[in-house]
Amino acid sequence: AQSVTQPDIHITVSEGASLELRCNYSYGATPYLFWYVQSPGQGLQLLLKYFSGDTLVQGIKGFEAEFKRSQSSFNLRKPSVHWSDAAEYFCAVGTGLGSYQLTFGKGTKLSVIP
Amino acid sequence: DTGVSQDPRHKITKRGQNVTFRCDPISEHNRLYWYRQTLGQGPEFLTYFQNEAQLEKSRLLSDRFSAERPKGSFSTLEIQRTEQGDSAMYLCASSFRILSGNTIYFGEGSWLTVV
């Protein structure tokens, strides 16, 4: 069965500092990979996705992620964090044709210090 | 696109009562999903529809839960005889199926508190 591990429950960074959120997945076939962001009490917003091709994918809000098959990882990065980036971030793997079912990690909460 | 719309956004109910949530997907999206999210956890898949057909149900979906999508447009999720363990956010999502994969768009969620 597929699974997603986000090792860091809570990360605190200073505004302007760089950010990397870790994600490791377990899935037998080629995965579809996603990062979503969730503000308190809100739904999920898609940041970026990987289906195939270039392993470095660009997303919204200045985020990027790199798929590393050898490490089963899909880490999210941002070179300079803004206070508005404080939220919870979820990595997910899609399974089935057309990724009809997403399996999520438990999330990483990001706090930003002014 | 107006986005995925969910109603109500918040519901407080007494244990044993029935509740129903409605989801309006992005227009022309033929796939509709329901997920459940409890505090401190990621969303968990409950069920999904392609058009009006319910094609997959998670083992998390007990007999007290029923979902419908009668005309392949909006969907309802009903929970009968609610229990305190049902307290969670219920997320609806939709997508348009394409062979190379699809992007799933989520609504704002419906919070359920069972007291």
Q: SSE layout and pairings?
A:
The complex is a heterodimer of chains A (114) and B (115).
Chain A: E1 3-5, E2 10-14, E3 19-21, E4 24-26, E5 32-38, E6 44-50, E7 56-58, E8 64-68, E9 73-78, E10 87-95, E11 101-104, E12 108-113
Parallel strand pairs in A: 2-12
Antiparallel strand pairs in A: 1-4, 3-9, 5-6, 5-10, 7-8, 8-9, 10-11, 10-12
Chain B: E1 5-7, E2 10-13, E3 19-24, E4 31-37, E5 44-50, E6 53-57, E7 65-68, E8 75-79, E9 88-95, E10 105-106, E11 110-114
Parallel strand pairs in B: 2-11
Antiparallel strand pairs in B: 1-3, 3-8, 4-5, 4-9, 5-6, 7-8, 9-10, 9-11
What does this structure look like?
The complex is a heterodimer of chains A (114) and B (115). Chain A is mainly β. Chain A has no helices and 12 strands. Chain A has strands spanning 3-5, 10-14, 19-21, 24-26, 32-38, 44-50, 56-58, 64-68, 73-78, 87-95, 101-104, 108-113. In chain A, the strands form 3 sheets. In chain A, strands 2, 5, 6, 10, 11 and 12 form a 6-stranded mixed beta sheet that branches. A 4-stranded antiparallel beta sheet of chain A has the order 3-9-8-7, with no helix packed on it. Chain A has a two-stranded antiparallel sheet with strand order 1-4. In chain A, a hairpin with a 5-residue loop joins β5 (32-38) and β6 (44-50). Chain B has strands spanning 5-7, 10-13, 19-24, 31-37, 44-50, 53-57, 65-68, 75-79, 88-95, 105-106, 110-114. Chain B is mostly beta strands and 115 residues long. In chain B, a hairpin with a 6-residue loop joins β7 and β8 (75-79). Chain B contains no helices and 11 strands. In chain B, strands 2, 4, 5, 6, 9, 10 and 11 form a 7-stranded mixed beta sheet that branches. Chain B starts with a strand and ends with a strand. The A-B interface holds A 4, 32, 34, 36, 41-46, 49, 51-52, 90, 92, 94, 97-107 and B 4, 6, 31, 33, 35, 40-45, 48, 50, 55-56, 91, 93, 95, 97-109, 111.
